[in-house]
Amino acid sequence: MVLFAWQDYKDYKLYELKLEGAEEQNLVRKWSTENPLWDFHKPSRNESVLKVMIPPEEASGFIETLRNYHLEYKVLIEDLAPLVQAQRAENLEKKLLIQWPHIDVLSVFYTHSEINDYLDSLPERYPKRVQVKQFGWSYERRALKVLTITNGDGRRNKPVILIDGTVHAREWISPSMALYIIQQLLDHYVDNQELLQDYDWVIMPVVNADGYEYTHTDSRYWRKTRRPTSNPDCIGTDINRNFGYEWGHDEGSSSDPCEDIYRGERAFDQPESQVLRDVMLHYRGRLNFYLSLHSYGNYFLLPWGYTSDFPDTYQDMMSVADAGAKAIIYSTNGIYSYGSTYYVLYPTHTADFALGVVNATVSMTMELPAAGFQGFDPWVSHIERLVTESWVGVRAMAAEVIRRYPA
Ligand SMILES: [Zn+2]
């Protein structure tokens, strides 16, 4: 009998590999297809060092494979369990110290339902400036909510900056960042009012609600949705490979439901993808900046992801990314790489769709910095450093968009 659903990651190991040349890069791609339980985290397309998480029952096969190919590796963590346990305990402890309805986004990771409660509390505090709208439901019937923030001047149809978070469940700094942006625009309005004078902000902190909740209750490193697939052993689809623009025409998605980059049976067959699509389409004609918050790797990723070609407006979008990268360097010395998704990392479909179908003026995926032992798992003590630095970049990019594309 299973008393606790919580996956403890007992004896899961974290390795670091060093790859040399394209041949070894291709090997890793092949292994991750053949062994969906080998969880590779490749920070970028051309990166030579990568991390991989291996379950205990796969460890001997994994090591044997590396030895056969004479690949160098080192063990970073022998057993993930105590670390995962400590992080979970720390977050729950911190949460107990804070009395609802106050929330402290700098010291706690909140669940999807807590985030929804927070969003629902805002219209009472800012009746003229916010609106909470539900655009649909997740597969497990969680309400998918979107917050609109204005300066309250009543002017309609301003251009929109649309920000989404938590397309991938385990990237916990992403919802924290979305909440931090909301607080900057509401609680620190005086410092940021020029960002709201001619533009409205639309923020969806959690797209993959089921997956994100699952990382809190069951399995910390879950990435996909929670909808069953044609394979009874494998659950979930990668929302960022499920969007209906050149769906399936890229190198970075998979037709195998057991892979973490599974693209689904058809484009938009996930309810969460449909909802995010509908949010984007709702603002068609007004969408001047689409920004999708992911982690990790310090990247501003521009379309296209599906092809090595560049969109016509590529240089304009690069100027916006440049403003963000410069602002972060001046502020913290943090280094961001930026450019076409295809060359820098791997396909990001939501940003391709926002440009290709919704005609967003600037469309971008932001990979927030790595933290913690895997990269997806900052300690709560890391949140403040990560979100304050990232806000410097987001703020500078928003200001650049507003300057370049006046209402
Ligand atoms: Zn992601």
UniProtKB/TrEMBL annotation:
GO terms for biological process: proteolysis. Its cofactor is Zn(2+). The active site is at 367 (proton donor/acceptor). Coiled coil: none annotated. GO terms for molecular function: metallocarboxypeptidase activity; zinc ion binding. The keyword DNA-binding does not apply. InterPro entries: CARBOXYPEPT_ZN_1 (IPR057246), M14A-like_propep (IPR036990), M14A_act_pep (IPR003146), Peptidase_M14 (IPR000834). Keywords: Carboxypeptidase, Disulfide bond, Hydrolase, Metal-binding, Metalloprotease, Protease, Signal, Zinc. GO terms for cellular component: extracellular space. Pfam families: Peptidase_M14, Propep_M14. Residues 108-401 form the Peptidase M14 domain. Belongs to the peptidase M14 family. This is Peptidase M14 domain-containing protein. It comes from Drosophila yakuba. The gene is Dyak\GE21614.
